[in-house]
Specification:
Distance between the termini: 26 Å
Low-confidence stretches: 187-197
Structural class: mainly alpha
Mean pLDDT: 86
Number of helices: 10
CATH class: Mainly Alpha
Number of strands: 0
Order of helices and strands: HHHHHHHHHH
Helix content: 55-70%
CATH architecture: Orthogonal Bundle
Radius of gyration: 18 Å
Largest sheet: none
Length: 209
């Protein structure tokens, strides 16, 4: 099955248009302590981090578009449902749905410390559209976006995001391991070393190769 193509010219035009809109509105400085930059500065910093990290039109697209919806929803330094708004803008210019889902879910990681395994598995179903999208690719892009996003944070924000990513990886691995274990024959379930997907290890090995 052929992957949908990304019109990078349209992505860049949309990114530049929204950065200019936000700048013209005064930058829309967030009130949260995790942010020491205006929203336009943050979006630019994240896009730069993506280009420096990895040559991938998928990553560059989600990095450039992940926060542009903040312009549409801003309220006194707060941005309710900005991820959803950003995803809708991405959809409107024809960005493939597997990337729009990542944009739409990128703020979910803020709640990772309170999430149980049921919530994590529900998130994974959304991220992969109930298995329609490749799980390793979706998780890899999601983590890479978080790594880029934190480069646009304050020092305290970057420190917190590092903790978030670590807990996210631990909980995702556990959720995937349990899903794999459920599919195994009863006599091998729970045996040492069985059902260990180590998804994020595969991701890091893949990035370093």
């Amino acid at each position: 099955m052929n992957e949908p193509t990304i019109d990078m010219m349209k992505v860049k035009e949309t990114y530049e248009r929204y950065v200019e809109k936000i700048r013209s509105a005064g930058g829309l400085k967030p009130t949260h302590e995790f942010h020491n930059l205006t929203t336009d500065e943050h979006i630019i910093r994240v896009a730069q981090a993506a280009y420096a990290m990895y040559f991938s039109s998928d990553l560059h697209t989600i990095a450039m578009l992940h926060d542009i919806g903040k312009f549409e929803v801003h309220e006194d330094g707060k941005f309710p449902k900005h991820a959803e708004a950003s995803a809708e803008i991405a959809r409107s210019i024809g960005v493939p749905e597997y990337l729009c889902v990542i944009i739409e879910q990128h703020s979910w990681i803020y709640n990772i410390h309170e999430c149980g395994q049921k919530s994590v598995r529900k998130f994974l179903r959304k991220l992969t559209k109930d298995g329609e999208y490749d799980q390793l690719r979706q998780l890899s892009l999601y983590i890479m976006l978080q790594e880029c996003d934190k480069e646009g944070f304050s020092e305290v924000g970057r420190e917190q995001r590092e903790k978030d990513i670590k807990v996210f990886m631990e909980k995702v691995n556990l959720a995937i391991d349990k899903d794999i274990e459920k599919a195994l024959p009863p006599f091998v379930r729970g045996k040492a070393g069985v059902g260990k997907s180590k998804v994020m290890e595969e991701y890091y090995n893949g990035q370093s190769g």
